[in-house]
Amino acid sequence: MGPLNGSVSAGNGRAHASTQEGVEEEDVQGQDDLLGEVGSGYTPYLGRLTAVACLGGLQFGWDTGIASGMLVAIHQDLGHTLSAVEQEVIVSATTVGAIIGALSAGRLSDWIGRKRVMVIAGIFFALGSVEQAASQVVRELVLGRVLVGLGVGAASMVVPTFLAECAPTSVRGRIVAINSLLITGGQVIAYVVDAAFYHLPHGWRWMVLAGGVPAVVQLVGLVVYLDESPRWLVSKGRHVDARRVLSRIYPMASEDQVSRQVEKIDLAMRSDVSLAPLPNTTATLKSQLSDVVRDPTNRKALILACGLQAGQQLTGANSILYYSSRLLLLAGFRTNPNSAAVAVAVANFIGTALAMRFVDRWGRRRLLLSATAVAAVCLALLALALGMIDTGDVVDDALDQAAGLAADVGKSGGPWPYLCLSAMVLFLFFYALGLGIVPWLVQSEIFPGPVRGIGSGLATATNWTCNLIISATYLDLVKLITPEGSFWLYSVIAVLTWLFAYFMLPEMTNVSLNDVHAALDSHRAGGGTAQGPGNQGYEPVLGSDSEEEEEEEEEEERGGAGDEEEAWSAR
């Protein structure tokens, strides 16, 4: 991965910090903007930390992808052919568990720590996989799905938050994006497994059981490799432990530099009443909820995070992921729809990989707006193609139960089945570039201090609630307004999501976590540039700086600092 445009932000942060009156205010405002060579990039420990944490994302993606192939492979293994309603219940059971898991994890992660919540999530993943594989009736399968959902919800909330709190500012976007990459990677693996086991007797049981393998690996990694978030440790007064973790993340930093950063993080968290650590009581929970809702900037952050998460789900991506095999069966891919569905998962994976590569260079806002616009067009093309295929009447008969969509599958030939597949592939690609990754990244960055856990929990719960609406109603929606009508609706929602992001989302690339709150407060609707204390009017422009220019700027900054302390960033 090439260099980032972080040097511009770093220079602006120094210039701004020098104008502050008093050392304390300077420490609070410019604490994360002194980004230099010390600890500013990837290290082996940061790689291990990211890999272990992101196994939660892999399991998240596995569950999303496995549902599609599992439903068409169960046949009568649970005593009868599944009805459309039973299929919706099986799919949505995970989402119900995820809503509970996300809401619980938000508060729990502030109380017992990010690491312990990830351990709990891994246990739920493992137990749920075994329960699904051993199920003999529908209700047992649903129970296993709920258990997995609890793990999915907890992991989807806590992993991005943990990564954002550990990663250096210059690579924070890409580090958090790795979790999204592993989510889509899990989907690809699940789709390949679906296709491989499709024709085997009871193959679906092996599909779901295999999902417990990464859970066990993660649990071992959590015990052996993973430390707690340094910011959470500081919030609990555990400064010695926080210094130890920061020393591992930034191995080139001196003890004095690490100590200063711990002090700066602590000072930032105490500089405002809304950021100050609070005891873990019911009264504190009410106080945090009140602070998130009543404080204007916190409320804006909550609306933005929840709105983006709602848009991510209501544009229908999971309708394609959960029911891709049925959609392709409907379009005319009859022999093994799971094989064709692999292309959909691969497109999602490639899009996420590219987003991870460019999210810090192009910027969150620009990437989201550009990709969402194209995704809306792809949804319209999918609706058009489905409209040209004679799907017949959608009724509750045996074939509807088996396919989950239509009694008369794909009568029309010609180019339309391939246009359906192409539109699905292109939509998932551009969805992954924008809506698939940016909402999680924004959510992990936008909430300040101790309200980050509860704010992220509410946003994640919004994501899973909207996921539940989509997964539990899609087949009914198809019957009500036809398959093509459902995707016309999703296309309109994508346009509305674009408008919401245009007016609400500031550019937060290269803004430190402690400055994001001020950047959001100063953002003007429809403007694009965050203007936090360490990022005065800076918006990264694609291709605006050559590698040589960036290196020259970094060299000038290091030369002007005159002190190694200036080269250290506290994120």
From TrEMBL:
Region described as Disordered: spans on this chain: 1-30, 524-571
Swiss-Prot/TrEMBL keywords: Cell membrane, Membrane, Transmembrane, Transmembrane helix, Transport
Protein origin, superkingdom: Eukaryota
Known catalytic reactions: myo-inositol(out) + H(+)(out) = myo-inositol(in) + H(+)(in)
Molecular function via GO: myo-inositol transmembrane transporter activity
Compartment(s) where it occurs, according to its Swiss-Prot or TrEMBL record: Cell membrane
Acidic residues composition-biased segments: 545-571
Membrane topology: Multi-pass membrane protein
Alphabetical list of NCBIfam families matching this protein: SP
Family stated for the protein in its record: Belongs to the major facilitator superfamily. Sugar transporter (TC 2.A.1.1) family.
Record's protein name: General substrate transporter
UniProt source species: Acaromyces ingoldii
